[in-house]
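Record type: monomer structure entry
Structure origin: computed from sequence
Chain ID: A
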Amino acid sequence: MAKKTTRAEENIQAVEEALSKTERFIEDHQKPILTVIGVLVVIILAFFAFQRFYLYPKERTAQEEIFMAQRYFDQDSLNLALNGDGINPGFLDIIDDYNWTESANLAHYYAGIIYLKQGEYQAAINHLEDFSTKEILVKAMAYGAIGDSYMQLDKTEKATEFYKKAANASENELTAPAFLMKAGWAYEVLGDYNKAVGMYKQIKDKFPRSQEAREIDKTIAHAKGMIK
């Protein structure tokens, strides 16, 4: 029993010594510690002030301003959607005028898709790579559009990279098999039929009810036939 009490006393003494060392450290470095704490408080307050008094109001305005550009996009009036109509801003204006907002982020996606449709492939890539989202289906479409742009630029290896990213981003029967098929075609362009077969087999195994799977056995047989 006495032995247990001794150990307990030793533990208490060790804790007290540690606390004493901490207190001495704080006393010796009180000024720099308070300075660091003060700086952190200022940074935190500045961050919340930036969000509340600058970013949130700017976001609300941006959401109103982007409406017409989205409408022009839906109507396939791509130049008006991109550059505005002289009264209402286009997506490029939203990007320039409302930086840091989610509307500007979304405008990068729209601009990228428009440039892809207009054959401005590098511009499409630039905008789509500046776009970010947690929506997995939209992310997949953005990756796929980058892949299409690289294919048009004859950068086929890069295209396969983004087609696979698109397929993996949202593994559903609507988009994933389509991007796997594109990846397979791209590998065939590169003459890498083994990897092409790998893409096609993923369609057969993972998405047997998809539209792409209907003729996938023939596609696999063709690719296998090209392997030397």
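Annotation 1: The first helix runs from residue 2 to 28.
Annotation 2: Confidence is low (pLDDT under 50) at residues 45-54.
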